[in-house]
Amino acid sequence: MPSGKQQAADTLKRHWALLQAIPRQPRMATATDLQGTLTAAGFAVTKRTVERDLQTLSESFALVSNERSKPFGWSWKKDAPAFTVPGLSPAGALAFHLMQKYLEPLLPVSMLRVLTPHFELADKVLGGETALPARSWMKKVRVVYPSQLLLPPKVDRNVYAAITEALLNERQVKTAYAPRGEGKSKEYTLHPLGIVQRGPVSYLVATAYDYEDVRLYAVHRFSGTEVLDAPVRKVAFDLDAYIASGALGFGDGDMIRLEAVFDENAALHLYETPLSNDQTIDAAGSSRVRLRASVPDTPQLFWWLLSFGEAVEVRKPVALRRKVVETVKAMATIYSSSARLRTS
What residues does each domain of the chain span? Predict the structure, then answer.
């Protein structure tokens, strides 16, 4: 049993975390919301304990409870000083701003609730005169994708909250999921393993039911998602190895030895950003180079090769070369049809 001194220290840490988790008016958080946040932070607490803590803390801090309807919601008063580590520097404020801008899709909702006061304080710091260099930096950095810009799909916030909480706490989820191209949703019980942001789309990496094969599920196709009390089934899984296998290029993990001849200018970027660790590039005639690399066999690779047009010729493997030839012939048929052009 912990000593009285240890219990006091644990209570202080829990109160500190609870005060940080409470939003500022007009937003509110219920005792159940706050219990979930504390649980995610590693505190084993009951809802009743949270309710007692809130009553105790409201006697010393600017906390208010909306008791007009159940469940009651708790907030910091709108004009209460920000409860944070004193003296957030412009550099720290800039870090919080960039975190919110670029990492928000990868953070559990319970943690975002805790960070919201810090985001708000960061905005205030960056708005001050002493933060001019940091504020100007915000206008000088961006993240862009090296592909055609696509607008992100709409994601149900409640669904996303459930998925991230299940992943964080290693719990199963029951959900309705609509596979692409199918009109109706199907019910699934999933064991979350990870979340990957691929361009504008977030994917849940998971196994289903009692199967061990790992699949990708687009988060925007979920609806009616519920976190279950049952823990996820443990499987041998490494997210980095899964990505390296080409799964996010929608391949099945097969590797090929690619050999292709590029126009020299088209291949310049591959000297600095190679396809693989074993990539080699050799001269192949006037203004042409031959590339060899071991890469995952994925649709993404096929689309990438096609994007070079006549600036690349796939030599090996033969199956990939044949696929490119068939695609180019089909495209030539479409674009050489003058009749189709006149009637379009």
Answer: 4-76, 90-137, 157-244, 249-335
Closest by alpha carbon to 195, among 159, 143, 231, 150? 159
CATH class, range 4-76: mainly alpha
Query: Which pLDDT value is given to residue 225?
Result: 92
Q: What are phi and psi of 131, to 5 degrees?
A: -105, 20
Please report, for residues 125, 170, 174, 186, 227, the alpha-carbon distance to residue 230 in angstroms, rounded to integers and kept in the order given: 43, 9, 11, 20, 9
Query: What does the alpha-carbon distance between residue 187 and residue 26 come to, in Å, rounded to a whole number?
Result: 36
CATH 3.20.20 is the classification of domain 249-335? no
Which candidate, 17, 70, 24, 77, places its Cα nearest to that of 45?
17
Q: Tokens 């290693």 identify what position? A: 170
**Residue 247 backbone dihedrals phi, psi, to 5 degrees:** -60, -35
Q: What is the mean pLDDT of each run of 10 residues along the chain (344 residues)?
A: 72 84 86 85 85 90 81 83 60 86 84 82 78 80 80 89 91 92 87 91 92 92 92 91 86 89 93 94 90 93 93 95 95 77 58
